[in-house]
Automatic annotation (TrEMBL):
Signal peptide: none annotated. It is a multi-pass membrane protein. The chain crosses the membrane at residues 21-47, 53-74, 86-103, 109-127, 148-169, 175-193, 230-251, 257-278, 290-307, 350-369, 375-393. It holds the Pfam family MFS_3. It is found in: Cell membrane. The keyword Translocase does not apply. The keyword Transmembrane helix applies. This is MFS transporter. Keywords: Cell membrane, Membrane, Transmembrane, Transmembrane helix, Transport. It comes from Actinocorallia libanotica. PANTHER family: INTEGRAL MEMBRANE EFFLUX PROTEIN-RELATED (PTHR23513), STAPHYLOFERRIN A TRANSPORTER (PTHR23513:SF11).
Length: 406
């Protein structure tokens, strides 16, 4: 990116000016709301069939787990297959799988297997979408575009789960799954006719798995890029702890249902405010310079849980932690600067897969830890570990000054 572009404030309309990006944005919004609503419906369907809270929770775990599988073993697809074809194929595959899940009499084991396959296709779709953005958007519009996709992901989580609950008051879980299938058909159509076909970058021959693992080794061999990726995964891994433990913390502090709702909404609302404020108030160069303090903002409020705050105090801490999401803006700029051009598509696919996997892992680790230790202890420990990780993984200085750590 040029220095001129670096010092120019970037705006969401820079990204939305691209017709191709508008198609990608609309497709993601429709697909994510459909997937979130269907995930909720599937947990209900599994619980009704088995009465098992563990199997019901496993549905959401299986939605995250494939991101590690796809990131490690399928990331080379973004270089081997033209990205538009890859994205539309993934959308249509999810539509077929969702329709299969809606079949009457589908055994629970079959449902869980199909959930895993849906997650795998969704992870490849996310990697393809990340890889195509630098081709669709100018340097000035790239970070606003990434920010908009993060915003729609936050909104889709809230709307999707809310829509899932509302839908199940008027339709069956199987009908909700068919609606997911329809949503992904619409998303495929938007991508097919709203974006331009571009030739594949040309990945290596032979096994997709071997090529993917080799690509990951190449990506992680670039020290500044490796630090960028590790920081981008470590912060959400630990920052998600209080959000994952909202229910047990509310029980620990004897909160009402309304107070629980306040806590559940606080961090996503902070993320929305942070994204908008960061884009509006900070130039790109400041976004990069502030990566460390803003990443620390995602974690420092977690230390306040040691004081066992009430609903208002805990909600404020969660809101402040959510605003720290701004550090992703600077990391997006930094990643584009330090990634060699031949590795860019692969690096973006790996980054996306890792982010989703480690967020899911954070939820699982938080839940496991809270089985043995009070939430008011688990969350501050996560915050302290996260702050140490930020210091360790802070962006490396220019190559001539780079140290040998990591």
């Amino acid at each position: 990116m040029s220095s001129a572009a670096t010092e120019t404030r970037q705006r969401y309309r820079d990204a939305l000016a691209s017709g191709e990006f508008r198609a990608i944005f609309a497709a993601q919004a429709i697909a994510m709301v459909g997937m979130m609503a269907a995930d909720f419906a599937t947990t209900v369907l599994v619980y009704r069939r088995t009465g098992s809270a563990l199997l019901s929770a496993l549905v959401l775990a299986l939605a995250f787990l494939p991101h590690l599988f796809s990131g490690a073993l399928l990331s080379s697809l973004v270089d081997r297959v033209p990205v538009r074809r890859l994205m539309t194929s993934c959308c249509l595959l999810v539509a077929v799988l969702a329709a299969l899940m809606a079949l009457p009499g589908m055994p629970v084991a079959g449902l869980l297997a199909l959930v895993f396959l849906v997650g795998t296709a969704g992870a490849v779709l996310a990697g393809g979408r990340a890889a195509t953005l630098p081709q669709v958007l100018s340097a000035e519009a790239y970070v606003p575009g990434r920010s908009l996709l993060r915003l729609i992901a936050q909104v889709a989580q809230v709307v999707g789960f809310g829509l899932g609950g509302l839908l199940l008051t008027v339709v069956t879980p199987r009908a909700a799954l068919l609606m997911e299938a329809a949503a992904f058909v619409v998303a495929a159509a938007l991508l097919r006719w709203g974006t331009r076909e571009r030739p594949a970058a040309g990945g290596g021959g032979g096994s997709v798995f071997r090529d993917s693992l080799g690509g990951i080794r190449e990506v992680m061999a670039v020290r500044p890029l490796r630090r960028n990726l590790l920081l981008g995964w470590a912060v959400p891994l630990l920052a998600v702890f209080p959000e994952a433990l909202v229910n047990p913390y509310a029980a620990e502090r004897s909160m009402t249902t309304a107070e629980l709702g306040l806590l559940a909404a606080a961090m996503p609302f902070g993320c929305l405010v942070g994204e908008f404020a960061g884009m509006r108030a900070l130039t790109p160069s400041r976004q990069v310079r502030l990566i460390v303090p803003l990443a620390a903002l995602s974690l420092a409020p977690l230390l306040g849980y040691a004081l066992r705050p009430g609903p208002a105090g805990a909600a404020l801490l969660l809101f402040l932690a959510g605003t720290g999401v701004i550090h992703h803006l600077g990391q997006d700029h930094h990643l584009m600067r330090v990634t060699p051009a031949p590795l860019r598509s692969r690096a973006l696919a790996v980054q996306t897969a890792g982010l989703m996997f480690f967020q899911g892992a954070g939820v699982a680790v938080a839940g496991f830890a809270a089985e043995f230790v009070r939430v008011s202890v688990v969350v501050p420990v996560a915050g302290a570990v996260g702050l140490a990780a930020v210091l360790l993984l802070r962006p490396a200085p220019p190559p001539q000054e780079a140290d040998s750590t990591l």
